[in-house]
Structures are given as structure tokens and as C-alpha cells.
């Protein structure tokens, strides 16, 4: 399917599908102006993750790490969901069941209106107490104090995100595996499909019989194993599929 978008067969499959799972990565937010991790303008080209996105870095210099997150929150906070996020949010009404599993921490899916979200890597708008583990939402730009302190116990707060060398929430991961193995169709949108365990979810889905639809301008290690590999930007391809669906969806 690469190069030419022939949605006919895909639309037929979607008409019959009862249970859709969508796995997203940084690429879905690229058209909102948020840099991806590994592209030409990727975040990791400018900053060494081991200096900033690790527990060791945070323990050594919480102020530096928080300054980086505060800067990123400042950028992300100005961005809006793009047509790709919006189609995914609308599809919660279109399909009987739709589960959105995202590696993104930017909160743009929520801003677009998505509700059934599993955030594998946390959320930049949430802070977590390093002592008690309490999680709180915080949308301050800039943060009132850096590093922020827990008002309950006075301990340091950290970003509620998964850092290098840390494990994902076992509950969120387990539920994501379960959702992947139950879906009829899994869309894999805007991810380089190299970071585990997220990268294994399409294989869980495929082994359980789901069709895999990848949307990405570039090929990934997953592309060979997909049923539909659609090369293009998610902010263009998802609305295109949505338009075709609307034309043909059974009343
Ligand atoms: P990457 O930066 O690795 O990959 C982004 C993908 O999006 C690439 O495959 C691009 O080709 C694709 N892309 C770019 N523009 C696009 C567009 N307009 N539409 C669709 N796709 C587009 O980002 P992730 O795969 O999300 O983890 O990275 C996975 C994880 O690596 C992140 O969650 C982060 C990072 O380490 C943590 O922070 C724990």
C-alpha cells in the first residue's frame, strides 16, 4: 500500500470492526509543532537523554531536570491538537469500542477530546511526590517554583513520566497488552516502533488475529509485518480515512 492510498479494503474491514486499538507515538503530535524524538529535529539531537531524563540526573540536579521539563511544558502548552488527534477522539463515537494507547506525554489526545487513554510513558502535566507517590495535575507555565515541592509532605515532586531505565506502570502495561490482544484492528500511528515494550503491542495484536494499520511517512521495523502500511502524515491520512468511512459507514 506504500506510496498509493487505496482505502477500499481497509474501509471494509473497519466497517466490520467492533474493537479498535490505536497506538500512537510522537509523530502524531509532529503536525502540532512538537518535535519528535528521533527525527532530524528530534529532541535527543539537542539534549542527551542520559543527562536529563533519568532518575540519576534528577537525583543529582533536580533543578536542571525541572528547568528542562518546564521549558518543554512551555512549548507543549502553546500547541493544539491537529486533525489526526481530532479524528481519533471522534472515533470513540464511531466504533463500539476504541482504546487509545499512547507513548506521548503531551496530553494533546485529551485536549482533542479522547477519553479512553492509556498513557504508557506518563504525562508531562502530572507531578508525582517522590516520597508518597501522590500524583497531581499541574498546568502552571512556568512552574511557580523549581524544583516543585509537595505541599503535603515537603518532599520533591518529579515529573510523572517514565525515565530511561525505569519500568512502565505494570497495570497500564498489562491493560495495554490485554487491549492489544482483544482488538480487531490496531492502528500504529507516528511511532518509530523501536522502544519496548510499546513496540511489542502490535505483535500482541497481530498474533491474536488483528489487522495492523501503520500510518507513518517513513518505514519502520514494524512496516514489514503490517497489513496496511500507509506512508503519510497522520494529520492528513486519518482525516482521509475518516472521510471514506463516513461515506460508506452502514447506517
Ligand atoms: P520517535 O521520535 O522515535 O518516532 C516518531 C515517528 O513519527 C517516526 O517514525 C516518524 O517517521 C514519525 N512521524 C513524523 N512525522 C509524522 C507525521 N506527521 N505523522 C505520522 N508520523 C510521523 O517517537 P516515538 O516512537 O514516540 O519514551 O518514541 C518512543 C519513545 O521514545 C517516546 O515515548 C520516548 C522516547 O524515548 C520515553 O520518553 C520513555
Verbal overview:
Helix content is 36%, strand content 18%. Helix 6 packs parallel to helix 10. It is built from 10 helices and 9 strands. It is an alpha/beta fold and 251 residues long. Strand 7, helix 9 and strand 8 form a beta-alpha-beta unit. The strands form 2 sheets. A 6-stranded parallel β-sheet has the order 3-2-1-7-8-9, sandwiched between helices. The protein folds into 2 domains: 158 residues, Rossmann fold (3-Layer(aba) Sandwich); 80 residues, SIR2/SIRT2 'Small Domain' (2-Layer Sandwich), CATH 3.30.1600. The radius of gyration is 19 Å and the shape is elongated. The site of 2'-O-acetyl adenosine-5-diphosphoribose has 25 residues, from helix 10.
Write the layout of secondary structure elements.
Elements: H1 8-16, E1 19-24, H2 43-46, H3 49-52, H4 55-60, H5 62-77, H6 83-94, E2 97-102, H7 108-112, E3 117-119, E4 122-129, E5 135-137, E6 157-161, H8 170-182, E7 185-189, H9 201-207, E8 211-215, E9 228-230, H10 234-248
Parallel strand pairs: 1-2, 1-7, 2-3, 7-8, 8-9
Antiparallel strand pairs: 4-5, 4-6
Helix pairs in contact: 6-10, 8-9
The structure holds 2'-O-acetyl adenosine-5-diphosphoribose.
Residues 25-27, 30-31, 36-39, 42, 103, 121, 162, 190-192, 195, 215-218, 220, 233-235 line the site of 2'-O-acetyl adenosine-5-diphosphoribose (OAD).
Amino acid at each position: 500500500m506504500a506510496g498509493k492510498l487505496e482505502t477500499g479494503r481497509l474501509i471494509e474491514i473497519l466497517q466490520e470492526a467492533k474493537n479498535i486499538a490505536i497506538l500512537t507515538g510522537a509523530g502524531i503530535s509532529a503536525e502540532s509543532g512538537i518535535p519528535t524524538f528521533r527525527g532530524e529535529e528530534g529532541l535527543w539531537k539537542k539534549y542527551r537523554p542520559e543527562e536529563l531524563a533519568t532518575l540519576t540526573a534528577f537525583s543529582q540536579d533536580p533543578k536542571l531536570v525541572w528547568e528542562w521539563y518546564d521549558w518543554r511544558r512551555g512549548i507543549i502548552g502553546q500547541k493544539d491538537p491537529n486533525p489526526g488527534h481530532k479524528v481519533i477522539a471522534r472515533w470513540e463515537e464511531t466504533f463500539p469500542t476504541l482504546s487509545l494507547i499512547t507513548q506521548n506525554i503531551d496530553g494533546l489526545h485529551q485536549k482533542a477530546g479522547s477519553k479512553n487513554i492509556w498513557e504508557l510513558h506518563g504525562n508531562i502535566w502530572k507531578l508525582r511526590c517522590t516520597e508518597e507517590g501522590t500524583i497531581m495535575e499541574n498546568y502552571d507555565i512556568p512552574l511557580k517554583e523549581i524544583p516543585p515541592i509537595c505541599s503535603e509532605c515537603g518532599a520533591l515532586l518529579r515529573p510523572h513520566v517514565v525515565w530511561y531505565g525505569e519500568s512502565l506502570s505494570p497495570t497500564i502495561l498489562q491493560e495495554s497488552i490485554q487491549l492489544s490482544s482483544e482488538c480487531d484492528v490496531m492502528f500504529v500511528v507516528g511511532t518509530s516502533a523501536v522502544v519496548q515494550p510499546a513496540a511489542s503491542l502490535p505483535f500482541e495484536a497481530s498474533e491474536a488475529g488483528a489487522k495492523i494499520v501503520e500510518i507513518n511517512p517513513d518505514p519502520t521495523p514494524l512496516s514489514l509485518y503490517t497489513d496496511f502500511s500507509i506512508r503519510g502524515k497522520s494529520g492528513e491520512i486519518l482525516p482521509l480515512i475518516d472521510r471514506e468511512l463516513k461515506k460508506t459507514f452502514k447506517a
